[in-house]
Amino acid sequence: KPSGVCAHQCWSQTMALQPLIEGMLGYRPDATECKITLEPAFPVHWDNAQVSNICMADQAIDLTMNRKTNSTAYLMKKTGSRELNMLFNPYLPVGSQIDSVMLNGSRLDYQTRRGEEFVQLQTNFTLDKESHLAVYYKQGFAVVPPTSSPNPGAQSGGVRIIHTNLRDNIYTITVEGPAGSTKMLEVLTGDNKVKYVERARL
Q: What does the alpha-carbon distance between residue 172 and residue 56 come to, in Å, rounded to a whole number?
């Protein structure tokens, strides 16, 4: 029998979805302006992803992502009678250099926001029925999030990524894990050449 005042705490249960909707997908609707903002930040080792039925009022979008080493393609399909103003701002690995952005085969103007941990592409276009957006770039650096599956009641023996940044062409990864343990991390470097590594082995 559930304990507490409420048998089903919806405000707690939705926390399983909020990191996906607001974090990984970066979804922010504005029905009054018929505008949707998407800022996808899919894990760097995912080659493809598909999200269906992203709803706002009587509109809905299906989003498909296909990623290669130096390019990422997004396909957006919309149902509904009205055109949507799309603010589409995907995240790329830190240090990535964008060559071009194509929307339905034509060049699209864009802006870039850069930080020590990310590169974010910023675009704005009108979505009618279907749009294909392709981003061509030289890939920067990214670390693949490690996963572990501890048994119920057991302490986690995995490693946790605390912070990453790229400064002066030095990519730094700060991790936390059991003292004295040795762990393996997969780091994506694209076409960049690694000259040396400190406090780890290749």
A: 40
Q: Would strands 84-88 and 119-127 be described as parallel, antiparallel, or unpaired?
A: antiparallel
pTM across the whole model: 0.87
E strands, the chain, in order: 28-30, 35-38, 48-56, 59-68, 71-79, 84-88, 91-92, 97-103, 106-107, 111-114, 119-127, 130-138, 142-143, 160-167, 170-176, 187-188
Mean pLDDT of 180-197: 89
- Angle made by CA atoms 91, 121, 137, in degrees to the nearest 5: 85
Token pair of 98 as six digits = 């964008």
Half-sphere exposure of 163 (CA within 13 A, CB side): 7
User: For 127-168, how does the pLDDT look when each residue is reduced to its tens digit (9 = 90+)?
Assistant: 989 999 999 999 999 999 888 777 888 877 888 899 999 999
In sequence order, the 6+-apart residues with CB closer than 8 A to the CB of 16 are none
